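Bumping my old thread because nobody answered last time. Still need a sequence for this structure:
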């Protein structure tokens, strides 16, 4: 009897404990997936680690952790986690896809193919499996298999432009330029807004057809579609250089440096161009900039030496010549140049010695017919070319110093298959998606924007920061940034500290507000909302609590909707759409929720209503707080109440005439409503104020 009672008690305790653990791990899993959705990969891994520690027999946390690791390019870690996931549940199809991508990036192409074949057993129509399998077969040089896989992919998905883009690279691998161009043309026919396709077609025309004008036209089109892509400017600069358009080439390198001040290739090439047009001091600046980051770049050193020589700074020139000749002891031209510099400082003996050395090397070169000044680490094919080769460019891997005066091009501009960069299935969506600018939130961090200033003034926020009650300066931003490992640890510790303060004085709203910020930053939205509820109960005039509660609740709605729409078969759980989709007047335009008007569930309608009530309260307390109008308009867009959204965007622009985000979103709403010209006007203004993607949309609307 006692044994039965004792056994029943034990079972009761175990069942209660199990339920509690289940609730906790489910909650932690949900927060981890939340962090993964918002691309906070490091943080998401921390949460999945917690679940794995408590329940190591579950497959899902290993899968999601693998996705996060894949996004961070930890391919080995992603592969290992997929192994553990599949051991526990071999029917999670996404695990084969993630492991295949990881293996492909690690160079295990056969292992990747095996995974894709396994996935295709469960999802035979999946285009990601088919496409990646074909690419892996190319990488293994199984060309017949690859051709068959591409044919199957295109047969099953004839409108899938990426299939044609990938196959075009395959044809180039087989030296069939005509078929490569035909596939590139087909991809552009299917979607004429693919900047990458135009850029690739331009390089094919440039390298294989020597059709410079047509190549230039394609590169111009690529830049109209994606005006911030530095590689396009670099490539257009090369095309223009071959067309003897030095001014245009210079403009392109200037633009690259404007977008990316530390782009060494642009600085190096601009230095060469400045040498050609006689801007010697400016050229020295460019080469010196390169040498600050690459002190052993002997091409930059040699060109700078020539410039010093031309400007009469012979000792500086000789110092640079010395470095080059120590590394290239058979560089005859270098000895000639140094001999002249030494003579000019009256070092006659040194000059004579260098001259004789140069003559001896030159005579040897004439006998062998092989260009001298090679570097043992250079490209063999390139090294066999002579200095008289009339090519105008040099690859990064080519270390033949005789080519010091040629423009530098990246090795990967050569049209060979660069499939590692094309492997599909990454969390990041490379295709351009037209979305409204996101809502604002109070946070301690934001992403840096090189094009437009992130400084956003708010009288209310300035007053709050002046009180010093917060541990850090609070910002108003819609450019949130993922936390680093140190920041994650800092905010987890901060949660504990504020919890202790709340125990001491549970009636003080400030620790609740601060803890709510910490919870938001570690993607625990439910706990953040609970604390903000408490703040509002304790202080009903705390405007910041209402604003952040609305913003966090809206984030939670977005995540919940993405989770409902997600499926494992196509990895949409790892790369969900924003949750906003609707009839699209433009390819890729995202406006409103996935539900048709009037079809939203009562629960979802209530969620939106709570968000709107909070923004109403903020506006009641602070009628000039422009970000409340903007955020409320975004909620209206999600509800498909576009006319109400326009009213709020109008008010935001009235209060802040330089509000780029409001012009951008209002422009998209006008386009969605069919008032295209008004939309273009607003998008033009947004572009003027720094939202560069506006021009891409205007281009699409104009076609």
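Sorry it took so long. Here it is:
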């Amino acid at each position: 009897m006692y044994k039965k009672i004792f056994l029943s008690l034990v079972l009761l305790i175990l069942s209660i404990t199990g339920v509690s653990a289940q609730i906790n791990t489910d909650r932690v899993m949900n927060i981890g997936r939340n962090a993964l959705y918002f691309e906070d990969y490091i943080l998401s891994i921390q949460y999945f680690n917690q679940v794995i520690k408590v329940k190591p027999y579950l497959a899902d946390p290993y899968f999601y952790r693998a996705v996060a690791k894949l996004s961070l390019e930890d391919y080995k870690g992603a592969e290992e986690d997929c192994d553990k996931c599949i051991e526990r549940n071999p029917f999670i199809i996404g695990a084969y896809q993630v492991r295949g991508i990881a293996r492909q990036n690690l160079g295990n192409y056969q292992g990747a193919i095996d995974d894709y074949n396994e996935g295709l057993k469960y999802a035979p129509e999946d285009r990601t499996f088919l496409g990646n399998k074909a690419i892996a077969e190319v990488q293994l040089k199984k060309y017949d298999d690859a051709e068959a896989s591409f044919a199957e992919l295109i047969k099953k998905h004839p409108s899938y432009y990426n299939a044609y883009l990938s196959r075009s690279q395959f044809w180039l691998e087989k030296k069939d330029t005509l078929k490569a161009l035909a596939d590139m043309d087909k991809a552009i026919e299917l979607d004429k807004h693919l900047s990458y396709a135009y850029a690739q077609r331009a390089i094919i025309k440039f390298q294989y057809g020597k059709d410079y004008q047509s190549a230039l036209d394609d590169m111009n089109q690529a830049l109209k579609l994606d005006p911030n892509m530095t590689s396009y400017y670099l490539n257009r600069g090369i095309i223009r250089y071959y067309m003897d358009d030095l001014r245009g080439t210079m403009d392109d390198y200037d633009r690259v440096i404007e977008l990316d001040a530390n782009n060494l290739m642009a600085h190096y090439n601009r230095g060469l161009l400045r040498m050609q047009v006689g801007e010697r001091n400016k050229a020295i600046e460019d080469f010196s900039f390169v040498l600050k980051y690459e002190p052993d770049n002997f091409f930059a050193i040699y060109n700078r030496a020539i410039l010093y020589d031309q400007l009469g700074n012979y000792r500086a020139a000789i110092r640079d010549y010395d470095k080059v000749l120590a590394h290239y002891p058979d560089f005859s031209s270098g000895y000639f140049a140094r001999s002249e510099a030494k003579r000019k400082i009256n070092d006659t003996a040194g000059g004579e010695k260098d001259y004789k050395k140069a003559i001896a090397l030159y005579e040897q070169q004439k006998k062998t017919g092989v260009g001298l000044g090679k570097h043992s680490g250079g490209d063999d094919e390139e090294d066999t070319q002579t200095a008289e080769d009339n090519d105008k460019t040099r690859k990064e891997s080519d270390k033949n110093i005789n080519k010091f005066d040629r423009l530098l091009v990246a090795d990967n501009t050569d049209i060979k298959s660069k499939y590692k960069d094309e492997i599909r299935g990454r969390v990041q969506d490379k295709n351009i998606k037209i979305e409204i600018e996101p809502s604002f939130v109070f946070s301690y961090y934001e992403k840096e924007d090189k094009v437009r200033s992130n400084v956003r003034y708010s009288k209310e926020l300035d007053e709050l920061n002046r009180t010093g009650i917060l541990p850090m300066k609070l910002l108003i931003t819609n450019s949130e940034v993922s936390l680093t490992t140190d920041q994650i640890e800092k905010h987890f510790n901060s949660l504990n500290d504020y919890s202790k303060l709340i125990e001491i004085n549970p009636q003080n709203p400030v620790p609740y507000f601060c803890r709510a910020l910490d919870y938001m930053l570690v993607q625990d939205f439910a706990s953040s909302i609970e604390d903000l509820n408490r703040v509002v109960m304790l202080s009903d005039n705390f405007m910041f609590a209402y604003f952040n509660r609305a913003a966090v609740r809206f984030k939670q709605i977005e995540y919940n909707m993405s989770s409902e729409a997600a499926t494992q078969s196509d990895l949409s759980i790892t790369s969900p759409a924003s949750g906003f989709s609707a009839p699209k007047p433009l390819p890729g335009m995202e406006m409103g929720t996935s539900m048709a008007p009037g079809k939203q569930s009562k629960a979802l309608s209530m969620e939106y209503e709570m968000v709107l009530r909070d923004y109403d309260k903020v506006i009641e307390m602070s009628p000039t707080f422009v970000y409340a109008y903007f955020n409320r308009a975004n909620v209206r867009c999600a509800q498909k109440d576009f006319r109400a959204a326009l009213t709020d965007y109008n008010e935001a622009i009235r209060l802040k005439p330089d509000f780029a985000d409001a012009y951008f979103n209002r422009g998209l709403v006008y386009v969605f409503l069919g008032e295209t010209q008004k939309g273009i006007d607003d998008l033009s203004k947004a572009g003027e104020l720094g939202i560069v993607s506006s021009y891409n949309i205007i281009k699409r609307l104009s076609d």
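The first helix runs from residue 2 to 37. Let me know if any region looks off to you.
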